[in-house]
Amino acid sequence: MKNFLRILYILFFIIAGMWVIFHPAKTETNLLRAVDSNNFSDELIVKLSGRYSSKINVLVEASSPEKASQTAEEFLASVDKNSFDIQAFDFAKILSTYKKYNNNLLANSTAKLLEDKKYDEVTAEAYNRLLDPFSVMLVPLNEDPFMLFEDYLKSLGGNNTESIEYNGKYYQVLSLEVNNELSLSPDVINSKIKTLTDLQAELSNQDVQIYLTGTPIHSYYASSRSMVEINIICVLSSLFILGICYFYFRNLKLLLPIAISLGGGILAGYLLCAILFSSIHVLTFVFSTTLIGICIDYSLHYFIERDLAKIFKSLTVSMITTVSAFGILLFSGVELLKQIAVFTMTGLFTVYLMVVLFYPLLKLDLNPGKINFCVNNNFKKIFLVIVLLVSLGGLCCFKFNDDIRNLYVPSKKLMYAEKLFAQTTGGSVKTSFAVISGNNMQEILEKEETITRHLESQDYQALSKFIPSIKKQKRNFELRKELYKNELNKFGEFLTPAEKQKLLSAKPQKDFIEYTDLPVTAEFLPAKNTSIMVLYDIKDPSIITKNGGQFVDVTKSVTDRIKHCRISCVKMLLPIFLILYVLLSCIYKPKTALKIITPSVMAAIFSVCLVSLTGQEINLFHILAVFLIIGFGLDYSVFRASGIKSSSDAVLLSCLTSIFSFLLLAFTSFKLISSLGFILSAGLAVSYLGSLLFDYKKEKAL
Question: Quick one: pLDDT at residue 159?
Fold first, then answer.
């Protein structure tokens, strides 16, 4: 029977591995993808979030405008155009299209003045443009005497080609965007961004400094530093485990089966997730691979006892309770939690089978030592008082914070670059969006124009700003003709009578500028029959909703969804403990079940309250860490309840290896990882010490 199960075990890896090779799952890094509900609204928010999380701002600082412009040109010339798109509206390419329809185009402010018949103000502005030595006549005066076409182009804005002067220095601003295909691979993105940082170092000198800002830059530096730190931690943790194995077992051969079992668990979890989900979120790997560290307990217990029959029940109960604890996450309705559940349950069960099916085949000459570690009643009392005081103190200053920015603190260099970019460009304004839907493009454009009339002087970008609706183009032509009738004769003294008559008798064009005529449309059309407007520091969001649009604040939406995910996790905790208690009560007596589960409850409460007591606000990832603490803590109590003398050594060794590894994580620079390391090391310590409070030997299993 065991040989048959071993064959099935191996076949699972072969079949699942072949499936994943031909149907690979991509890695997802967008946090919203982990917590969205896959409806249209959430999908749109993900796209809007991704639109601005893929932008890279390049700020060139120099002692003169010439050096700033020259360096900016050198930088752009060296950028890989296949990896990064240069974001700018190239008016030179679309100017000919605008010229063709110039009689249908008016700046919104000018159109409003003409509708109010404030011809004197329009004429005064026309005089200013006419007398301005820097004005460029893009259309001959005999075709556009009031220079309304130039007025329209200025209202569109666009990339500032002139240097910005700030605090005695000159700046050029460039904007790049990570290519959509490239953004699917975090590893490739990091390699491409490294080329930008190398170019940054190459072009920077005493006279010129280049600053890079934006989400991809922060992700690159954060991941690079984290990888270096985690590699160091892995080396130190491995050395620690090597030391324990050598001094306790006097043999290092057992490290190979331990490594194979853990690797098999991680691989099995990945394979099943790749089969069940189209993409696997990076946070699934972070949490699930950490939890599979529980499995080292199984190996240590086997190698210390070396009699599977004696520890089989404890191993099985430990596996069942931990798998059950995570199984409830499958009903959470949150994508990330479902993936963590599948990954973890599969990994744990796979390692369990490895120990049960294959470890008995090993012939290792081990001579385990003996650790004498016990606690007296005074220690127990002091421990309980500390746990109680910390828990009560933490509850008094308990606060939640669901802002994802709270999990990451950039380096001083990056913080300075972001601050300088905001000061020189005014980039610190709050950006939000209006989502406009309609049966066709003309309906969408007309809705946008209704909204923009209420925005007054507030800044925005929208498709209708570049391509007016046909209805508005017709109206613009009529307003222009009314202006000519009232003001042309006295204003256009430089025109011949024939030129005046031609303007006054002009007839409307038969065709109009359409959204397909200009390349700017892709910026504003995320889906069919849907457009987005980019709003800056909008004062009254109800303007959008009252006029048929949907207002979207991406930052608030991200916060709301993280909050929803955090609340879902909290709601799962009580059912998990109840299910575990019922399950353990079916295996042991109810009193024993209560003793087994109590250390995990104590550890969960203590660790979260300790985080709160140290002045930190509780977030989603602290709550997720509680699930890890439950998984580890139950193992300690279950194995102690087995009554096997050697189990105490195995529990202590597995606890020491886990706490040491997580304590090292607490010293990393990435706040998310360091906060996880802190809460996990504290929780595991309390789980282990809590398991020492009870005498399980007096209780017999049912």
Answer: 45
